[in-house]
Amino acid sequence: MKDESLKDGVIKDLVLLSCVGLRPVFVHGGGPEINQWLGKLGILPKFEGGLRVTDEATMEIVEMVLVGKVNKSLVSLINKAGGIGVGLCGKDARMITARPTRGGSLGLVGEVSSIDTSILRNIIKSGAIPVIASVAADHEGKAYNINADTAAGEIAASLGAEKLILLTDVPGIMMDMSDPNSLVREISIQGIRKLVDEGKVSGGMIPKVECCIRSLAQGVRTASIIDGRLSHSLLLEILTDEGAGTMIVG
């Protein structure tokens, strides 16, 4: 998301996969953009356990940036690359119903209470690519910021997706962060839980791993955490045996 040429490459690969018969659903956040706009307005971002703490003022910016700016920019890139992008957020057609995160210390950061993918199925059937911003509302219509990885995992499970892929700015799960050769190519749920317990998976990677485990438990066949900085990482992950990061299997 930070590098325009990388973003352009991911979008073109997404459109290519769509053209050859795969049916991608694209879920996004936009942390760097949000931070940029918070900075312009003099609001300091805070994080707890890898998740953004979101007060009322921050939530207003999150929704404006994710739904109004980032989402439409990604849709435009898909259309420019020859695909058909349809921009949505979790509020549309009650796709994602949110509830406050347990404990409430993160403010307006929500958990997924329920998913309704009926609108998505119609879009997918038409051959278009749904592009979903991770903003949702509760039953009262109050807006919540949902972690994009979490939203993607729950949507994947609800759709019965073959594969969940999280694009990150690290090579994947590493046994030793200082050793690029220690990348774990494939691991079971039990194996990844052991790495978390041993402290080898920490910080912002924990929510990603948890979301992969949840989606696998709900029927998604494989979940991968891949290096989005690698050129054509999406194609490498889907079309080659070696992949482009770490694949977690049930």
Task: Explain the overall architecture.
There is one protein chain. With 250 residues, this protein is α/β, with parallel strands linked by helices. 40% of the residues lie in helices and 23% in strands. The chain is built from 8 helices and 13 strands. The strands form 4 sheets. The protein has a 4-stranded mixed sheet. It has a 4-stranded mixed sheet with strand order 10-12-13-11, sandwiched between helices. It has a 3-stranded parallel sheet with strand order 1-7-4, with helices on both faces. The chain is globular and about 45 Å long. The two termini are 29 Å apart.
Overall form? globular
The end-to-end distance, rounded to whole angstroms, is: 29 Å
* Helix count from the secondary structure assignment: 8
Low-pLDDT parts are none
Describe the sheet with the most strands.
4 strands, mixed
Q: Which structural class matches the secondary elements?
A: alpha/beta
Oligomerization state: single chain
> How large a portion of the residues is in β-strands, by DSSP E?
15-25%
Mean pLDDT: 92
Quick one: how many beta strands? Answer: 13
Radius of gyration: 17 Å
